[in-house]
């Protein structure tokens, strides 16, 4: 590409490196996404960014990448080694080819390559007086280009695409012809190949098979710069995060000691909040008791007292300054302050709150819940064959297989939304099924508590307490219109509906999607001792590992085998 030059005078001093946000805010119209956040990314940091979908995690990466300017505050971005940003949903110009997309994604490295080419042109045209400084300029640019692996970047991109399952893609092909997942993996492959000092990755493990995940993690383990990753993958968090940044309601909190440290800190925060709530309740009770005692004492004092020295009928009015009046006034003021500034309890961990009689298994526990025998389903562009499958009370099943193989179709067949074309499908009388779907329903209307009441059949007067009892929502959230909730909040509403249902069989389709890792941990724990049968479709590696005792159904190319 370019000849290699070296000169002692071209060796640069150690470059200043800084990536920091100070009181940075981002607002879109009337929606405040990030609110006065401070964050410093060190040269070897491994930060995992977590939070509900829609909380502002991707926006945070855009600000760190310098592609989005904050509405207020300051961004200090000075990284000579460059920044690579792999978005979850990359967007490219109309008519762009894959090659154009790669050039755009490489950004500063392609610019560095052009600068180096111009420097060589100037060196070739330089006179003897200008030749030495021009050689130094070329050598400096060349050092930067070589340190990023610029001469070998296209070969690395091809290798990364192959490892991520999109190898052999024609670079002349319109990038719009790629699926959303393929465009995301293209962006990821370019970022990992760019040699950038700071990698910003948005959900890099999405839709990757085990082989691709292994390659990705090995590649990141070899990265010597900083890493900021938005992820819900708990195994990924556990392996790479040295600190966790949680985005919630426009603010961020940073927790050290990786993912385990985050879980410990959150539990400690919950206990401290619970203690503060108990102290507040005790103070309210003490103040109410003081108020009642002084009111009783005041009532016991007669309104008139016979004056000394008189043996008949002359009385003076009772004094009102016995101290009780003052104490009553102060207690009332104290009680008003306490009630105006309540200390709410922390959200309870996720839990099932169905009554015991509704959780009890059906009669005849030895009778299977469902039996499928030689079942075939046919629909244009979709088919599924199940040779034999029996689901017993309390059993645990894990459905595995590649994307598009028919796993969701199988769950919809179990719940009765799809009808088999042939075979035997026996459902136990009175069987109750709850279904947590993979995608949220965007057609819902009303507040969260109204939707919950309708979907669960809960009386409106009881719906608020019933929804809050699951530990999935905080008080004010349940009164928001569902159209204004984030994807993660709507997913929690779907989960609350499923958990509040009376079920003997629970179907979970990618239950970890759009939920923060801590909530997934709670969901796993809540299911351990539940008497219902559970059938789960998931790519979550930790969930699958924890479900090692579950029996498996493999779905591949429309064929389900147990």
From TrEMBL:
The Swiss-Prot or TrEMBL record annotates one GO molecular function as:
ATP binding
Sorted alphabetically, which SMART domains does this protein's record hold?
Answer: AAA
Q: Which Pfam families match?
A: ABC_tran (PF00005)
Annotated ABC transporter domain residues: 19-274, 369-555
So which domain of life are we looking at?
Bacteria
List UniProt keywords, sorted A-Z. Answer: ATP-binding, Nucleotide-binding, Repeat
Keyword set includes Repeat: yes
This protein's record includes keyword Nucleotide-binding:
yes
What's the protein name?
A: ABC-F family ATP-binding cassette domain-containing protein
Species the sequence originates in: Microbacterium algeriense
């Amino acid at each position: 590409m370019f000849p290699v030059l070296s000169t002692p005078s071209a060796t640069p001093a150690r470059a200043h490196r800084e990536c920091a946000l100070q009181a940075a805010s981002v607002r879109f119209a009337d929606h405040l996404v990030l609110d006065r956040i401070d964050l410093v990314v060190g040269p070897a940091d491994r930060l995992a960014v977590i939070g509900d979908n829609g909380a502002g995690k991707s926006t945070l990466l855009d600000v760190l990448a310098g592609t989005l300017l904050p509405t207020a505050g300051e961004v200090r971005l000075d990284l000579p080694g460059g920044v690579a940003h792999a978005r979850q949903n990359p967007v490219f110009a109309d008519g762009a080819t894959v090659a154009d997309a790669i050039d755009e994604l490489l950004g500063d490295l392609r610019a560095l390559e052009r600068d180096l080419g111009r420097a060589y042109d100037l060196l070739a045209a330089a006179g003897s007086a200008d030749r030495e400084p021009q050689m130094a300029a070329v050598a400096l640019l060349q050092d930067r280009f070589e340190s990023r692996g610029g001469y070998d970047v296209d070969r690395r991109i091809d290798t990364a695409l192959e490892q991520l399952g999109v190898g052999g893609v024609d670079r002349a092909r319109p990038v719009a012809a790629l699926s959303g997942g393929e465009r995301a993996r293209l962006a990821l492959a370019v970022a990992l190949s760019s040699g950038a000092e700071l990698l910003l990755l948005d959900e890099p493990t999405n839709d990757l098979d085990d082989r691709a995940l292994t390659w990705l993690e090995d590649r990141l383990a070899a990265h010597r710069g900083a890493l900021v990753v938005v992820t819900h993958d708990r195994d990924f968090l556990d392996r790479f995060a040295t600190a966790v940044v949680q985005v919630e309601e426009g603010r961020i909190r940073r927790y050290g000691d990786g993912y385990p440290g985050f879980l410990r800190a959150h539990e400690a925060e919950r206990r401290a909040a619970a203690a503060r709530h108990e102290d507040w309740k005790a103070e309210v009770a003490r103040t109410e008791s003081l108020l009642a005692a002084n009111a009783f004492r005041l009532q016991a004092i007669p309104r008139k007292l016979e004056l000394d020295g008189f043996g008949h009928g002359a009385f003076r009015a009772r004094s009102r300054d016995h101290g009780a009046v003052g104490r009553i006034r102060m207690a009332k003021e104290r009680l008003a302050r306490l009630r105006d500034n309540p200390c709410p309890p922390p959200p309870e961990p996720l839990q099932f709150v169905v009554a015991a009689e509704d959780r009890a298994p059906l009669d005849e526990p030895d009778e299977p819940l469902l039996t499928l025998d030689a079942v075939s389903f046919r629909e244009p562009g979709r088919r599924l064959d199940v040779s034999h499958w029996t689901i017993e009370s309390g059993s645990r099943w894990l459905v595995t297989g590649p994307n598009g193989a028919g796993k969701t179709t199988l769950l919809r067949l179990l719940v009765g939304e799809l009808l088999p074309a042939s075979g035997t499908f026996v459902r136990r009388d009175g069987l109750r099924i709850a279904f947590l779907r993979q995608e949220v329903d965007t057609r819902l209307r009303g507040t969260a508590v109204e939707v919950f009441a309708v979907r669960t059949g809960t009386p409106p007067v009881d719906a608020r307490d019933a929804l809050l009892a699951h530990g999935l929502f905080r008080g004010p959230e349940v009164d928001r219109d569902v159209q204004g909730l984030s994807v993660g909040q709507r997913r929690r509403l779907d989960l609350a509906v499923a958990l509040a249902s009376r079920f003997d069989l629970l179907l979970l389709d990618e239950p970890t999607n759009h939920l923060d890792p801590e909530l997934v941990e709670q969901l796993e724990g809540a299911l351990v001792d539940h008497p219902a049968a559970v059938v789960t479709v998931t790519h979550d590696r930790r969930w699958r590992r924890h479900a090692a005792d579950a029996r498996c159904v493999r779905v591949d190319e429309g064929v389900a085998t147990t």
